[in-house]
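If your schedule permits, I should be very grateful for your opinion on a structural question. I would ask you to consider whether the tokens describe a fold that such a sequence might reasonably adopt. Thank you for your consideration; the sequence and its tokens are set out here.
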Amino acid sequence: MDSIPFKYTIFAIISTMSNLATQYIVDFAIKDIISENYALYISMFFSTLVGLVIKYVLDKKYIFYYRTKTQTENAKKFILYSFMGVFTTLIFWGSEILFDKLFEHDMSKYAGAIIGLSIGYIVKYNLDKKFVFGKN
């Protein structure tokens, strides 16, 4: 049995939970300081950074078994990995914003985030496999 899909799913769940926890913490921290109109975007930004770093480390080491030889190579891989995530981040953010605007419930944005992240991670795996970690 190929364990890559199982591990990738577990890592996506870990990253998603880290992302949502970061959003919640940032929302809580800035709720009385920042306008509600901007708070969502600020929390999405910081949660995306947290999810990105966690997912990069896990994917590089346990999914693609990629070993960088230098810090420079690692930085270049991270930049490429991040660049591949731009499109998938738009899916995630778009889904979260859509759910936040369509449904009048505090948790709706998180439901949108989970759906967007799930779709995005499927797309991201294929992009990373081909363009980021394809040649080792």
